[in-house]
Amino acid sequence: MKEVPTRCWCPELQGLGLGLGMEAEPPLYPVAGAAGPQGDEDRLGVPDGPEAPLDELVGAYPNYNEEEEERRYYRRKRLGVVKNVLAASAGGMLTYGVYLGLLQMQLILHYDETYREVKYGNMGLPDIDSKMLMGINVTPIAALLYTPVLIRFFGTKWMMFLAVGIYALFVSTNYWERYYTLVPSAVALGMAIVPLWASMGNYITRMSQKYYEYSHYKEQDEQGPQQRPPRGSHAPYLLVFQAIFYSFFHLSFACAQLPMIYFLNYYLYDLNHTLFNVHSCGTKSHGILTGFNKTVLRTLPRSRNLIVVESVLMAVAFSAMLLVLGLCGAAYRPTEEIDLRSVGWGNIFQLPFKHVRDFRLRHLVPFFIYSGFEVLFACTGFALGYGVCSMGLERLAYLLIAYSLGASAASFLGLLGLWLPRSVPLVAGAGLHLLLTLSLFVWAPMPRVLHHSWILYAVAALWGVGSALNKTGLSTLLGILYEDKERQDFIFTIYHWWQAVAIFAVYLGSGLPMKAKLAVLLVTLVAAAASYLWMEQKLQQGLVPRQPRIPKPQHKVRGYRYLEEDNSDESDVDGGGEQGQGDCAEEEAPQAGALGAEAAGPCRKPCPYEQALGGDGPEER
What we know:
single chain, mainly alpha, 24 helices, globular, disordered C terminus, endoplasmic reticulum
């Protein structure tokens, strides 16, 4: 039997092993303080025993490559930014999908007369539903007053988390459907709509800027930390991130149809029953499904099954909360958050209104309004007045899935902005919607006829393509025009507030004839496209927009981060970085007498973090 050599790691046992005839091997790592093979000095002539220098014992790893480690560090940072974008996109998709799916299932169940009488008696469920919809659609009108204050107070990430939690609260109240549960939760949901999507838009824009910083860290080191990056430098990353975000967002319309496909469709009557008294569809229709049967359920779903479905939706909403909380990083550094809050709450309240003086925003307002019109028209006007009126309620889910998949896939068409002028996606989406709107003006499908269903699915998918180009183009345009971190939350608040105003207008005009709805949609679309092209022409002529001045931060609590007179995050325009260097230069200059020393003032001693990075104060010079 072959003898296996024994490895020995201790010097004392190695000597014992030699006496026993065992093969001895040198230790894997040199022992600190032990004499080397050449006595007390190594090959370089440096003592290797107890008198060895401290740097030789605890110094840096000899093969350490600082440039490689820096590259790996910023690669991890970039991966973290991509993780933040995916987590925020998935969280928004799950949140909005759960909200739309629950609201759709709830309104269909409450519409059925038999369900209301058997389950709730004389509780007045239609009146509760109307007040609930009023709370969801009316409350966002006041969002312009409080959204910037909430975003600055809580921070962008925590505002997203709080708003997603309010959506989950709305889902939880459906376990016990009463006036005092549904209506207050609907009002709270209406208050959270604009803050959620404004903070989401701000978050995606900030991630693109941070990705640029982590990708061009060498240029940042050469320019200095106070130097702003070139204007428009983050635009390519913004296009990619907005395409990812809206591809996830538009999938929420497909996710919202899962409760209907796997649960509610088994209880619905077919189109011959529900559309028995419907005589006109499409452009000839009035209101919302005039003549639609009051009973749409063949059998009533068991309460146990409803609780299971609502529990699944609640679990998904809770998962979205955890996704935003655990995987979304901060949009700003802590010092930047302090600076954003320290401009004064009165100024934060006034700045959204002061931005109206900017002609770019005034020209984009019609597009903001149309952006709200077209989404709600696709989900209500077209889906109900053309789809359900012709193919029945049981095919509503598949029609909205066609819209969702078309919009999700077309969101990546926004990447055409990497090679084409930025106006191309917006104008292309508007042109596509213009053709579809004119086609819907002259088309009135027959009720209970399925042979033209493929036309409805094609129109839904093409409308989704136009919606994706519209949403992606608008958000990207705002992120490029207003790339200052001090303004982004105000700009996205204005954008989503106008969307909420448009949705409220659609809610008020839900009883109008279909031709009137299409006419309003067409006029708004033409005005939006013309106003946008006019804005681009002004910018090409070199007209400078008038922007409100953002006040300097006024810090009441001065920690070690704010020992300097000027704001450390101030841009190079105000000369904040140069002034700090001038103070240190005065400190280095020879000063004559104590009076001169008092006039110059001492240079700030670096904090421990700066000392660890290699900064040296006046004492070390």
